[in-house]
Every structure is written in C-alpha cells, then in structure tokens.
Amino acid sequence: MSIPFNKPYLTGKETHYIYQAVQSGKISGDGLFTKKCHRFFEEKYRFKKCLLTTSCTDALEMAAILIDIKAGDEVIMPSYTFVSTANAFVLRGAKIIFADSNVQNPNIDATKIEALITSKTKAIVLVHYAGISCDFSEIVKISEKYNLFLIEDAAQAIDSFYLDKPLGSIGHLAAFSFHETKNVICGEGGMLVINDDRFVERAEIIREKGTNRSKFFRGEIDKYSWVDIGSSFLPSEIVAAFLYAQLEELDNIQNHRKKLWERYDGNLKGNRFKTPQIPEYATNNAHMYYIVCNNMRERDGLITKLKENGIMATFHYLSLHKSEYYQKQANGVNLPESDRYADTLIRLPLFYELTFFEIDTITNIINDFFTQL
Ligand SMILES: *Cc1c(COP(=O)(O)O)cnc(C)c1O
Prior knowledge:
alpha/beta; 11 strands; two-stranded antiparallel ribbon; binds pyridoxal-5'-phosphate
C-alpha cells in the first residue's frame, strides 16, 4: 500500500476554463475568471471586498502594508504557525511578539494576549489552525480596547465559521490560501479579504504595483500613475480559471472531506492520544486531521511505523520563537504549548480521493501502535 500525505484534487473543469481564458485573448490578471472568483466569495460569505493574490503569503504582505507597519511596531501572533504569518510583518520592520497556543488546540491562547500588549503593539494576527476558529469573544474585546488591527491568517479556513460568521469576515483583513495542500486549490494562489472600507481603495493600488490602474480600467480616471508603494500581487487569468473550476465544486469538496474526517475521528476516538477538539463556537471545515501524541518519541515512532506501511504522515510547524532566524530576539521566551504541538502533533493523509478503506487501514495501524506501547 502507498498513501501519499496529499494529492491535489481536480474537479475536471480546470483545463476547460484555462482553455477558455487562453482563447479569450486576455490572460493577465483581473479578467473574467478573477471577477467570477471575487464575486463567488463576496456572495457566498458576504466578505466586503475580495482580491485574488498570487499566494496567501502575498495577501499577508499586503495586509502589513495596508496597516502601515513600520520599524519597531509590534505584532502579536502564535508561534505555532507557518513562517509567512510572521515574515509578512517582519519585511515591513515589525517586531513579532509570539504568544502561546491553547492547551486544547494549537490556536493562539486568547487569555495570554493582553499581557503582551505594549504602547508599540499595532496588530494581532490570528491563525485558524486546521480551519478551526480562534476564540473571537475575548480577542475582539482586546483588539477594540487597545485599538489594534485584527488580521486573520485564514489560509486553512475556507468555508469555516465562528458561530454564524465565516472565518475571514471578522478581522479588518484576512488572507486565504489556495496552495495545492489546501481544501480548494490553484497550485499557488491566495486571496486578501478586506472587511474595513478604509482599506479597499489602497488595497487595489498596492496590488497593482502602487498604481491606480484598477480605477483606470473601470473608467473612473483617464490615466493611471504611480500613487503609492506596491508590488505585483495579482495572479494571471490562467490561475483564476483553475480556481473557479474548484470553487464551483466547493460544497461537494467540503461535504466529502467532512465524511473522511468523521471516519478518522470515529475510528480514533478513545485511545491514548488526543484527537482534535472542536470548540462549541467553531465549525469544522475538514482541512486537516491530526492527532497529538504524549511525547516526541511516540510521535516520531508512529510516523516511522506508518512510513513502513507506505503511509505518509507528517509533523507540522516548529515553534517560530525557536527558529534560527528569530532565536536571538526571543530573549528566552517560554511557550510550552507551542513546543508541545511542535513535538507531538502528527497530520494524517486527508485528500478528496482517499478512501474509507485506506482510512481504516491507517487507523488500524495507529490503534495497534498505541495498544502495543
Ligand atoms: C498555507 C499557509 C500559508 C501560506 O500560504 P501560501 O498560499 O502558500 O502563501 C500561510 N499561513 C498558513 C497558516 C498556512 O497554512
């Protein structure tokens, strides 16, 4: 048996739409398919304004520019996250203040944030790990009390909710990813969601190399020029065409992934390791199935055991506060929960074409592994 960790799912329409985009004669950005993708998200989730980007990393970089991060500004975020969450703000000169994760899940521990706020704090960046919402009740209160920007790294959080609110709709800005490892994909791609009107016009400019070209194309001005800093953050129509084929199948993809997730969860509950806990305020978008082992030796042993059986399971983030790049600035900060997830969390294969039979095989090996310990 050979089960990869991930296998990109194709709906079948991708190449058809790419062909249409090519035939249309316009394959640079912001054409018909980009507009279709924007409309899809703005209608389905009532996001105020959506802009496709070349990656979630780029959407985060745009967010950092939009909130005017300057040298010395402090940004609070979890240490247990992908480098891009931090890098986007570091590029603008921010000092990252890492917070610990919850005991129950890898999301930022909302009760630890307030103590980290100083006069230099400018923003809180949330990561909805595995597509499970952070605890907004506390976090929104803190951000309002200290007048901080709230930014959602919603890379994994498509079609997931906090109570009845879609993730990506609560922060001032949010960033999604369509990298091939996410639920809905286009190879490399992302999206910036703007929920605060103040940022809409400037976001278009930053995304178009610091020019007001978007306004020009809408006929609102008769020539376009350099008006701000910016870069080339918009994807081509070829990428947007691919993405649109995926979005048309979003409900199907989500329903199917949830069935696979539930199969894992049913098979794995009640053993000597932890399975994901979904807080009452959160929905599950079946982005990831993970388990948390009791120690690193156990976790690495399980990865090896699965590998011997042809099954690719992987650990996930290493705490950013302990990274080679950040260590010197970290001043010995201690984030035990973040380190615990770095040492003991294991992600299991989860992709559209995975079968119940394969899941049962994987979970039998896992359950046997723990029984024999
Ligand atoms: C995937 C991911 C990113 C990066 O997304 P790209 O589209 O590859 O730039 C950032 N943050 C988190 C939490 C992610 O899971």
